[in-house]
Every structure is written in C-alpha cells, then in structure tokens.
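Input chain follows. Return structure tokens only.
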Amino acid sequence: MNRSPRRTGEEADPVLITEAAPSYDDQHAARKRKYMLMMSLRFPCLILAGIFYHTWWLALLFVALSVPLPWVAVLIANDRPPRKAEEVNRYRHEARAIEGHSHPVIDG
C-alpha cells in the first residue's frame, strides 16, 4: 500500500507561498533584462565619445565607461540572489478550539 508522505508525517510541512523565492525562470528573465540594458548602454557611450572628440577628457570618459560595461554586465547576469539563511515559515495545523475549555459530549 502506497501512502502519501503527508498522511504519515514523513515529510515536512509545505512552505508558505509568501516565503517562497522567485522561480528560476523569473530570476533568469530579470538577469537577462539587466544584461540587455547594460549592453545597450555601451553603444551610446561610444557614439557620445565620437561626438565629443573635440573635448578630449569628455570623450575619454565615455570610452572609459564603455570598456568595463561588458564585463560588469556578464557578472551581473551570472549572479543569482543569495539563499536566505533564515528559517522557513511553515504552516502548522493546531487542533485547538477558539475557546480555552472543552465542551461535554452528549451521547444519545
């Protein structure tokens, strides 16, 4: 006979959904958006460096900003959020009445 672990108490109580971490797909999508945003900033930095070539320090600033952007974008895209070290909040069913005292049972 195959019994459910929930009935036999072999497995822990379910995790409350309010404490659950975002799914891996959601985390991946957020990291992808950050990567695309950072990489899309590189091209405008190079264009601005070309526009401001007369002001050499400003052009150099834009070039200097565009050089580490791919490296930083990859670091951020590969970084997952840290796991929580706190104890997980679980639902615990307690069979106690709202009132503090018990009621007599009348058998008929």
